[in-house]
């Protein structure tokens, strides 16, 4: 078996997405600063971010169908090129001083809508280019890639913005073109072997994943609670930038990059953590630690102290994601991966657009303490609900030496609408 570091197609896929993720991380710092500069209002900047997150949620439903129906090479290439075009248009408008809030919203909508399709197709492509015994290692490397991209991209985005507002957006466009080039270089056939029947409507295909998720008590409970926690996660970056923008873009980029260090450390230690702690302990512990960190962020004023608290949040997120992704990888049939993934992301994302909208409005009205205090309260309430849920209390212990337990996440044999589909991750 060829090791991952010598698997040509995996390395191409990994490196292309790594470059794209660095560009996206650069843009994640630059776009809120650009919106603040254009509108002079944290609430208006929150509205721009709201549009981006809402578009991502809207794009999640057809994303899974496209990923299951069409060649992964075609879907990923189209998504990269469309997102590159949107970024080029913003960079060009900034360069000539003609960027409007309407233009910024349209570009944000395009980037948000086509992102999920690329993600779903990449997830399926990994299963095609990597042998089954190496999937765990490949997923771990992808998780590390995301955090490395944030560690490099967010400080770089802040630094480039200080040199010129158009530079990080132009860099984002180039990163999408690089990713499209690496996808074109793949040798593995990424065409779907068992595509959905052409006569089935998109709505009926989407409903397969939604019916399974809503029909599984464990997944339904954790998704509802995670949707609340997701409000805090989607609003976190804007809350930091809007409340501490006087610190300067370079310092903000470095502070946000500290979160990636926490995520890398959490990914590195996840295996050890998951060997020692019960799955339900990991999930509820994640919730309480995130709530405590957000409460501290309500009163901390130093931008680097805020960055350190973000690092704590992403440190505990990594093992929680590990618990939930483990179920998805083991149970979801390959031919339904795209639809189940996109359905879960959509259900999670229904509340996501509220995060930046709430962050911007609260920072404008009452300041930093109100935004982070509200997020801490939301996460605490969601964690109480998780802790009180019998489905979470009875979830199986995933430690290697644990005795087998009944799996509450498994669909009931008596429910014909969900018997052929598996579960998915509910990480925030």
Overall 3D form: globular
CATH fold label: Growth Hormone, Chain: A
Domain count: 1
CATH H-tier superfamily:
MFS general substrate transporter like domains
State the low-pLDDT regions, or none.
Answer: 195-199, 404-428
Tell me the Rg in angstroms.
21 Å
- Total count of strands: 0
Helix content: over 70%
Count of helical regions = 15
Distance between the termini: 34 Å
Strand content: under 5%
The profile of the biggest β sheet is: none
* CATH architecture assignment: Up-down Bundle
Structural class: mainly alpha
Round the mean pLDDT to the nearest integer and report it.
Answer: 82
- Provide the succession of SSEs: HHHHHHHHHHHHHHH
What descriptive keywords fit this protein?
Growth Hormone, Chain: A, disordered C terminus, 0% strand, 428 residues, mainly alpha, 15 helices, globular
């Amino acid at each position: 078996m060829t090791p991952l570091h010598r698997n040509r197609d995996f390395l191409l896929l990994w490196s292309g997405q790594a470059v794209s993720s660095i560009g996206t991380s650069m843009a994640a710092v630059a776009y809120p600063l650009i919106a603040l500069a254009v509108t002079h209002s944290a609430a208006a900047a929150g509205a721009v971010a709201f549009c981006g997150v809402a578009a991502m949620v809207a794009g999640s439903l057809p994303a899974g169908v496209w990923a299951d129906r069409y060649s992964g090479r075609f879907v990923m290439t189209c998504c990269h090129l469309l997102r590159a075009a949107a970024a080029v248009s913003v960079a060009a408008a900034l360069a000539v001083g003609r960027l409007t809030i309407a233009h910024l919203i349209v570009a944000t909508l395009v980037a948000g809508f086509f992102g999920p399709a690329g993600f779903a197709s990449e997830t399926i492509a990994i299963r095609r280019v990597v042998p089954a015994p190496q999937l765990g290692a490949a997923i771990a490397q992808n998780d590390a890639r995301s955090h490395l991209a944030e560690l490099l991209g967010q400080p770089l985005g802040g630094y480039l913005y200080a040199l010129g507002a158009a530079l990080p957006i132009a860099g984002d466009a180039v990163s999408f073109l690089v990713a499209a080039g690496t996808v074109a270089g793949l040798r593995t056939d990424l065409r779907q072997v068992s595509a959905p029947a052409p006569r089935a409507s998109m709505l009926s295909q989407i409903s397969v994943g939604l019916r399974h998720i809503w029909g599984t008590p464990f997944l339904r409970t954790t998704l509802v609670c995670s949707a609340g926690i997701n409000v805090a996660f989607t609003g976190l970056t804007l809350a930091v930038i809007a409340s501490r923008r006087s610190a300067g873009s370079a310092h903000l980029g470095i502070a946000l990059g500290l979160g990636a260090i926490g995520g890398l450390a959490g990914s590195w230690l996840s295996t050890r953590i998951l060997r020692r702690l019960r799955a339900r302990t990991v999930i509820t512990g994640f919730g309480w630690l995130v709530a405590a960190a957000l409460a501290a962020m309500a009163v901390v004023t130093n931008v680097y102290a805020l960055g350190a608290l973000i690092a704590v949040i992403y440190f505990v997120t990594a093992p929680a994601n590990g618990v939930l992704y483990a179920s998805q990888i083991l149970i979801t049939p390959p031919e339904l991966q795209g639809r189940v993934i996109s359905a879960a992301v959509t259900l999670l994302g229904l509340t996501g657009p509220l995060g930046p909208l709430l962050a911007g409005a609260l920072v404008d009205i009452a300041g930093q303490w109100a935004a982070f205090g509200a997020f801490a309260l939301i996460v605490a309430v969601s964690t109480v609900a998780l802790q009180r849920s019998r489905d979470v209390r009875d979830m199986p212990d995933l430690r290697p030496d644990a005795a087998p337990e009944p799996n509450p996440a498994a669909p009931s044999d008596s429910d014909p609408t969900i018997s052929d589909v598996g579960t998915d991750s509910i990480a925030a």
